[in-house]
Structure formats: C-alpha cells, structure tokens
UniProtKB/TrEMBL annotation:
Family: Belongs to the RutC family.
GO CC terms of this entry: cytosol
Organism this protein belongs to: Snuella sedimenti
InterPro entries assigned: RidA (IPR006056), RutC-like_sf (IPR035959), YjgF/YER057c/UK114 (IPR006175)
Protein name: RidA family protein
NCBIfam families assigned to the protein according to its UniProt record, in alphabetical order: Rid family detoxifying hydrolase
GO molecular function per UniProt: deaminase activity
Gene3D superfamilies hit by this protein: RutC-like (3.30.1330.40)
Length: 126
C-alpha cells in the first residue's frame, strides 16, 4: 500500500511528484534542494549553508513519516561540482553515526533543478 507523505516543514513539490512515499515500512524521499520552506527562497550563501538546508528539509520529511536519520538505509547525493564534495560530506556526515551510516552514492551531474549545487534523496525503513 502506498501512502503520500507531506509536510509544510519542507518545500512543496514543484512538479508532479510527492515529498515522499511510504510503501509498507519503507520511505522513499524525493530529492531535496536548498529551498527554504517558509520563504520559498533558495539558500545559496555557501555550499555548507546549502547542504544544511537540504538536510533540514530531509529531516522534516523523515519526521512527517515518524522517522529520523537513524532509519535511513540509502542516500543519493547529486552535486554539480565534485570540488564541493568535502564540504558537503562534512555537513551530511554530521547527521549520521559512522557506525551505522547508510549506504550512499555521490554523483557529479551537469545541472540540477533551479541551478542548485546539491540535491539529496533518501530511502528509510521503520
């Protein structure tokens, strides 16, 4: 059974998709970018601020499904410049315990929605 997960604490979808889908005990989040859900503005002051906003948006989606970062089993990180990897990784890593961190891939892409620098999606299980 499929359940749409929605929260006002993360940016509203800007296309034909949901913030997340819960199927059984598994949550599939859509990719989050650094949109501030209160203002609708992009947070692009620095790659650290941008990544922090992305993680805050993901946290809100996880919480809407009664989950935390401890439930995350897989992450996909898309970045526009691999030179930003260490800064993105430092912020991302601060949300996880290294002992049970999720599986992950990080991929450099040519372009992301709204010309942001980072987009992250996750899969989590209760």
């Amino acid at each position: 059974m499929k359940k749409v997960i929605t929260t006002v604490n993360a940016p509203a979808p800007i296309g034909p998709y949901s913030q997340a889908i819960l199927s059984g005990n598994t949550l599939y989040t859509s990719g989050q970018i650094a949109l501030n859900p209160e203002t609708g503005d992009l947070v692009l002051d620095s790659i650290k601020a941008e990544t922090t906003q992305v993680m805050s948006n993901l946290k809100a989606v996880l919480e809407a499904a009664d989950m935390t970062f401890d439930n995350v089993i897989k992450s996909s990180i898309f970045i526009s410049n691999m030179d930003d990897f260490s800064q993105i990784n430092a912020i991302y890593g601060s949300y996880f315990n290294e002992v049970n961190a999720p599986a992950r891939e990080t991929v450099q892409v040519a372009r992301l929605p709204k010309n942001v620098n980072v987009e992250i999606s996750m899969i989590a299980v209760k």
